[in-house]
Amino acid sequence: MGKENRNTIFIDEGQVHAIREFPDQQYIMRIEAPKVAAAARPGSFVHVRCDPKIPMRRPISLMRANADAGWVEIYFKVVGDGLAALSDTAIGECVNMLGPIGNGFSPNPESKTQLMIGGGVGIPPMLFLAEHLNSDPNYDWSPVVFMGSESPFPFDLKASKIALNGIPSDATGCLPEMEDCGIPSRLASQQSYEGAHKGFVTDLAAAWLLANPELQASTEIFACGPEQMLHAAAKLASEFGIDAQLCLEEYMACAVGGCAGCAVEVHGPNGASMKRVCVDGPVFKAREIYLQ
Amino acid sequence: MVADGSNKLDPRLTTEFCGLPLASPTVLLSGCVGFGEEYTRIEGFSNTDVGAICLKGTTGKLRHGNSPHRVYETPDGMLNAIGLQNPGVDTVVDTILPDLDFSETRFIANACGSTIEEYVYVTKRFNDSNIDAIEINISCPNVKEGGVSFGNDPDMSARVVEACRNVTTKPLIAKLSPNQTDIAYNASRCIEAGADSLAVINTMMGMAIDIEKRRPIIGNVQGGLSGPAIKPIALLKVKQVYEVARKHNVPIIGQGGICNATDAIEFLLAGATTVGIGTALFYDPLVCIDINRGIGDYLTQHKMASVRQLIGALESP
Ligand SMILES: Cc1cc2nc3c(=O)[nH]c(=O)nc-3n(C[C@H](O)[C@H](O)[C@H](O)COP(=O)(O)OP(=O)(O)OC[C@H]3O[C@@H](n4cnc5c(N)ncnc54)[C@H](O)[C@@H]3O)c2cc1C
Ligand SMILES: Cc1cc2nc3c(=O)[nH]c(=O)nc-3n(C[C@H](O)[C@H](O)[C@H](O)COP(=O)(O)O)c2cc1C
Ligand code: FES
Questions:
Q1: Residues of A in contact with B78 (CB under 8 A)
Q2: In the beta sheet, which residues pair with residue A27?
Q3: φ, ψ for residue A282 (rounded to 5)?
Q4: A7 interaction partners in chain B (CB closer than 8 Å)
Q5: Contact A199, A190 (CB under 8 A)
Q6: Contact (CB, 8 A) for A258 and B47
Q7: Under 8 Å between Cβ of A205 and A211
Q8: For residue B188, what is the enclosing H or E element?
Q9: Cα Rg, chain B, nearest whole Å
Q10: What is the CATH number of the domain that holds B229?
Q11: Which of A48, A60, A262 has the most ligand 3 atoms within 8 A of CB, as the residue to mutate?
Q12: Which pLDDT does position B144 carry in this prediction?
């Protein structure tokens, strides 16, 4: 691979500035990480040491990065010992992370609408991407954001004032973070959450695509979330004949391309090959992952 | 590290391995660092901080490897079942080796095969390259003889080593499996068959189960256990192999769970000439800098002039 990738991943060990806890053991944590923040891209992730007693690191997406202030924000839901230990970190204590890792999303500037589908802990890279596109001075992007979760959303939802064609009438709520900067957003859940459509997040995306035939051809899908959701997003893209980029998860050891522990099968023009989710991904083209 | 970013390693760490001068006794282990460049992505990491780097296990033809999951953390260690994913020896020799910077460190190939013929082909291809040494990973399953690992049978181990010896003049390292009864006997057979060095030990086989799904977590069901969990076993195996190897002046790459300078010094005292670091890189990518510094501090404290004085310097209880 030559030397072109040298010194592109950084080690930061910085204090936890803030932790917010949400139901179902969900946390949003702001951590001082100036080098990671300066190089972060939507879709890239960090490999975090959760606790000195749990030496293997855990991969977590970046939700926000503030290069000027030198911090990053992550959003995670406790699964086992690693993330439980991370959630116990107190404000002022230090967290060691490796990052930013991975290629992130690369939206096509020709596309008119960027349709984002985030599910559960797949929400953070979608927020990052939407906010990033919104503040891009070079292009006039127009993201539309749909989020799904089976745990209460870790945001103070409010009723949306931005109209969205074709959306089920029970989807009235939005993410204030998106709405306040003019990005339309809607929510879905199988649970009965106020303002959220009762159903799958991909149903919202399908309804929007159907109701906006003139925009279909120039829409690009971006998705991150559970496997079933990614599958549904890929199917949607193929049904409407549009491109989709998916952000994948796989168990990792090194997260820098050294161990091939995170490899997945990818179907490119030259047939099947193995790609590492950490450094070749985590974002892949949908049609390279799921053959339709 | 000096101010311009270039590394000046402590000269007392200089050692010799199979006639190759090494800047440090630390060796990055096969399968943990891809084909030598991957960790240099990390700022602060440098190939010049280690004595040598073992490249990923390489077979005759491209291999896709096992289905997920391939890695899983276990108490004090991890399981892996990568399945020798690699692009095949022709691609490695023709397109990967030319990009490596041999001025920074020594590079060691890791040759694998399902048949003796495949080991020979891979070894031969590496022999005709600029690689510094060839390690044969004899823990691979022998497909012609029911999939039993070459490395668990001293006769088969010796046959692989002998066949590879016949096609290379480069330093040849036999990497021994701990999944066998008498590692010292296997070591002596590998030496007789022409091995210049022994790598001790490869991973131990293990498994993990997801009780909710009632399924093995590792796609391949079983995987190799590495990391601190295997360190005491590895240390004993190094000592046992050293009893044999010292008589033939055959150096050992000691490995299995080394995470810090104390671990490294233990392996040196047990008889290793160099110390391999694999899993510990996943914990701390810059661990070798600390290990080098820690060995240097120990030498100062004990008024020793060279790390070589530690090799096999274990006293009786
Ligand atoms: C690129 C990437 C981005 C991610 N982003 C986020 C995020 O933003 N927020 C969030 O909450 N989670 C995220 N995850 C999932 C998160 O890494 C796992 O939930 C976490 O590793 C579980 O660790 P644990 O110790 O709590 O659970 P355990 O189940 O005890 O973990 C045991 C082992 O399995 C591994 N593991 C278990 N589940 C996963 C998984 N889904 N993906 C990868 N490894 C796993 C762990 O890393 C650990 O080695 C991401 C995963 C990847 C690969
Ligand atoms: C992810 C992973 C992949 C490995 N792949 C190889 C391999 O291709 N060839 C080989 O000889 N050993 C391989 N090994 C074994 C290591 O080289 C080393 O012998 C072992 O992990 C013990 O050292 P450690 O505890 O420091 O990791 C691998 C180990 C790991 C963790
Ligand atoms: S986790 Fe090691 S290659 Fe991706």
A1: 56, 253
A2: A21, A76
A3: -75, -5
A4: 40-43
A5: yes
A6: no
A7: no
A8: helix B183-192
A9: 18
A10: 3.20.20.70
A11: A262
A12: 74
Which residue has a Cα nearest atom 3 of ligand 2? B31
Beta carbons of B172 and B137 less than 8 angstroms apart: no
B78 falls within a domain: yes
**Is pLDDT of B2 > 50?**
no
For B131-188, the pLDDT digits (tens) are 999 999 998 777 777 667 888 899 999 999 999 999 999 999 999 999 888 999 999 9
Structure pTM? 0.96
- Does the pLDDT of residue A275 top 80, yes or no? yes
pLDDT at B146: 67
The residue ranges of every structural domain in chain A are 10-101, 113-247, 248-292
Q: Tell me the nearest-neighbour CA distance from B99 into chain A, angstroms.
A: 5
Which candidate, B304, B237, B284, B16, places its Cα nearest to that of A55?
Answer: B284
Q: What are the C-alpha distances in Å from A152 to residues A198, B82, B187?
A: 13, 37, 60
Domain that holds residue B250: 11-310
The percent of residues in chain B predicted with pLDDT above 90, rounded, is 91
Looking at residues B73-95, what average pLDDT do you find? 97
Continuous segment of H or E residues that includes residue A189? strand A185-189
The answer to whether B38 faces chain A, any CB pair under 8 Å, is yes
Looking at residue B246, its pLDDT comes to 97
Alpha-helical runs (H) found in chain A:
34-39, 81-87, 123-134, 176-179, 201-211, 213-216, 227-240, 286-289
Whether the pLDDT of residue A166 is over 50: the answer is yes
In a domain, B176, yes or no: yes
- Check whether B1 has a pLDDT greater than 80: no
Which phi and psi angles does B55 have, rounded to 5°?
-80, 165
**Tokens matching residue A288:** 């390279």
**Total structural domains in chain B?**
1
Residue B116 has φ and ψ, to the nearest 5°, of -60, -35
Structure-token pair, residue B253: 């790459």
Look up residue B92 and give its DSSP letter: I
**Chain A residues closer than 8 Å to B285 by CB:** 11, 98, 254, 256
Residue B299 lies in a domain: yes
Q: Considering only CA atoms, which of A143, A140, A109 is closest in space to residue A128?
A: A143
Residue pointed to by tokens 């979608």: A126
pLDDT tens track for B287-299: 999 999 999 999 9
Distance of alpha carbon A289 from alpha carbon B262, whole angstroms: 45
Q: What is the pLDDT of residue A269?
A: 87
Residue B316 lies inside a defined structural domain of this protein:
no
- Ligand 1 atom closest to A86 (CA): 26
Structural domain A248-292, CATH architecture: Ribbon (2.10)
DSSP state letters, B239-289: HHHHHHHGGGT--EEE-SS--SHHHHHHHHHHT-SEEEESHHHHH-TTHHH
Handedness of CA A251, A35, A7, A44 (dihedral sign): positive
Q: Which CATH architecture has domain A10-101?
A: Beta Barrel (2.40)
On the 0-12 / 13-18 / 19+ scale of CB atoms within 10 A, A21 is: exposed
CA distance A76 to A28: 7
Tell me if A72 sits within 8 A of A175, measured CB to CB: no
Q: What is the CATH number of domain A113-247?
A: 3.40.50.80
